[in-house]
Design brief:
With 378 residues, the chain is α/β, with parallel strands linked by helices. Helix content is 12%, strand content 30%. The chain has one domain (2-358): Single-stranded right-handed beta-helix, Pectin lyase-like (Pectate Lyase C-like, 3 Solenoid), CATH 2.160.20. Mean pLDDT is 93; it is low at 7-21 and 371-378.
Length: 378
């Protein structure tokens, strides 16, 4: 009965998604694509890199119905967590020069709704003394889409989505979590993870205690990758055309699917595992998912339509296009680590351990020159 009710709820959610217009932006996919953001509200400019005050990012996100653009580039060094308002769109692609990033504290959409974030770098790191916070937190939020974002150095999780409803994380880089060394934790859902690059995490890539679409993701140098957990409850998972690649920190390549018990129902096809760490991409099919119940077709009617790339083609596409643009030092390091195909990679305890500039956070060019036009591949 519990499994039947779960599938019924999932089916109704998919039907609702099909009925509602995908308002987020052209090319938006998945359950979070229904987010309306602040596209119909007022345009607010971020004009400086200050932590707070007039013209700051913190001030810009303090009100609802806002379409936020950036007149400056560089890192905003946060002294404390930033709480977003509902019904906002954050257009990181409008920043000039090297783009915009936030470092040193959590970005929180907890309890909020209808949020669109694109082309934003969120890097918490050890500058944040609160180890119980994450790089991005959307607990109990609904209708959220994160696209072409770059997450790094999350302490509790890179992305925390406990209690979140209708979320998408697409075309993003989720790399080098520290502290717990976890990628993403999702409960409630449904959620869509599409075209993301996951690099050097202990576990939770993601932890899916919800009905999930997981399509065209690349997971590198994991200790455990796609996870549900034995206490997760009854959920359905469409796992399609993903590539799991073992690295130096991978003690058991067979943990590409982890804690997937018979409470889980899984449609898995087109997935590959490269387990030999030989410096070449040469994996084999990997579609046996623990003791989960095998579904003969996807639970979500839109999942197969998302799978436009094979697993191998997804590697090429994701390595070329995922994350915020233009590629900065941290994301370039993450991508080059993956391109070693088993030869390099470490699960870090601190951003400083990467040896990158600016204490490991990398350097973004700070400028207020003319904005650049960015076209995203999705």
């Amino acid at each position: 009965m519990a499994r039947f009710l779960g599938l019924l709820i999932a089916t109704l959610s998919v039907c609702l998604q099909a009925v509602l217009a995908q308002n987020a932006f052209s090319g938006a996919v998945g359950f979070g694509a229904i987010a309306t953001g602040g596209n119909s509200g007022s345009t607010v400019h971020v004009t400086n890199l200050a932590d707070s005050g007039t013209g700051s990012f913190r001030d810009a996100v303090s009100g609802s119905n806002r379409n936020i653009v950036f007149d400056v580039a560089g890192y905003i060094v946060l002294k404390s967590a930033v709480s977003l308002s509902s019904s906002i769109t954050i257009n990181g692609q409008t920043a000039p020069g090297g783009g915009i990033g936030l470092m040193g504290a959590e970005i929180s959409a907890s309890g909020k709704s209808n949020i669109i974030i694109r082309n934003l770098r969120m890097r918490q790191g050890t500058m944040d003394s609160d180890t119980g916070k994450s790089a991005f937190n959307m607990g109990d939020a609904k209708n959220v889409i994160l696209d072409h974002c770059s997450f790094a150095y999350g302490q509790f999780d890179s992305i925390d989505a406990v209690g979140a409803v209708n979320i998408t994380v697409s075309n993003s880089i989720i790399a080098f979590p520290i502290g717990q060394q976890f990628g993403a934790h999702v409960e409630t859902g449904p959620s869509t993870f599409y075209g993301n690059l996951w690099v050097s995490a202990h576990n939770r890539q993601p932890l899916s205690k919800d009905n999930t679409q997981y399509v065209n993701n690349i997971v590198y140098n994991y200790q455990a990758a796609y996870t549900s957990a034995n206490t997760g409850g009854y959920f359905s998972h469409d796992i399609i055309n993903n590539y799991f690649i073992a690295g130096p920190s991978t003690s058991s390549a067979g943990d590409d699917y982890y804690q997937m018990d018979n409470k889980q129902s899984v449609y898995a096809t087109g997935n590959f595992l490269d387990s030999n760490k030989d410096g070449a991409l040469n994996g084999a099919a990997a579609n046996s998912v623990g003791s989960a119940v095998v579904l003969s077709k996807p639970w979500a009617s839109t999942s197969l339509g998302l799978a436009t790339n094979s697993a191998a083609a997804a590697v090429t596409s994701v390595l070329a296009n995922a994350g915020a643009t233009p590629r900065d030092e941290v994301d370039t390091f993450a991508v080059n680590t993956v391109k070693s195909y088993g030869k390099s990679g470490t699960i870090y305890k601190s951003q400083a351990d990467t040896g990158l500039s600016n204490g490991g956070y990398g350097t973004l060019t700070a400028t207020s020159t003319k904005k650049r036009a960015v076209q995203f591949a999705v």
